[in-house]
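User: Study the chain.
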Amino acid sequence: MNMIRYTLRRLWQSTVTVFIVLTAVFLLMRLLPVEGYFKDAYDKMQPEQRENILRSLGLLDPWYIQLKNFYAKLFRGDLGQSIVYRPKVPISEILSAKIPYSVKFGLTAMALSLALGLAMGVIQAREKGKFWDKIFTAYIVFINAVPAAVYLIFTQLYVTSVTKLPILFDRTKPSSWILPAVSMSFGGIAGYAMWMRRYMVDELNKDYIKLARAKGMSSTAIMVKHVMRNAFVPMAQYLPTSVLATISGSIYIESLYSIPGMGGLLVDAISIQDNTLVQALVLIFSSLGIIGLFLGDVLMALFDPRIKLEKRGGAR
């Protein structure tokens, strides 16, 4: 029962957070000048024409009426139509063509990040201070210290010339999927390796590990049965967020490789002041992030019996 109450409480908090974020973005978008809705045609229109267009879009109604209408449509599953990006085209239609690319690349990159990052972290913990630990630490430092644009462009230009892989994404060429997916996983690999090493080193220095060694348990058994399992518990909180964030796509990488995903769509929508499209994308991205945090907290509560659920929503 405690777990159910904790989950319901966190679900309610997550729902309220999404509502606050979406409402704030909705109101901020209404503060932008109306010229953005007309692109280059603004100066060519008569004031009456502009007013008629704004009225047809519902932008002349009081803000609270606009907000009420927005949520009324949202609860019916209607994300509205694009105003500027693709005028009068349902947003669901625009997103349905882009989401599959971001999901496929995101899941592939996430699989690479988990497999390689966790393996690197385990090797670093076992070989602390030795050759492979220093090599992988150098990689982690490089990824975190060097701007992503630098090593991503380097990867695109020089790796493609060496491997003869396509430099841009082409959905008809499976080989063109390789470099974008690998590039998207660089940061995740470094992150998982760094945290896995840290947690495993912390576990290796605890008293129960020393006791297990004193009892004659082999190093492999200690690593598998105790260290790796216990080190993975604190990482469980961040897994859902990482998965959902990666699936949502990388703005820079999708632009770099000309991938028709969701990565650059939000930037484009804001720049052309397409309110309905911005609202739909903010809803998706904020929901993904908050759902990730919610699932992370639930996983922590499931995996770690030390977490208290009775008070303060599972405060640790």
User: Anything to note?
Assistant: Residues 236 and 299 are 6 Å apart (CA to CA).
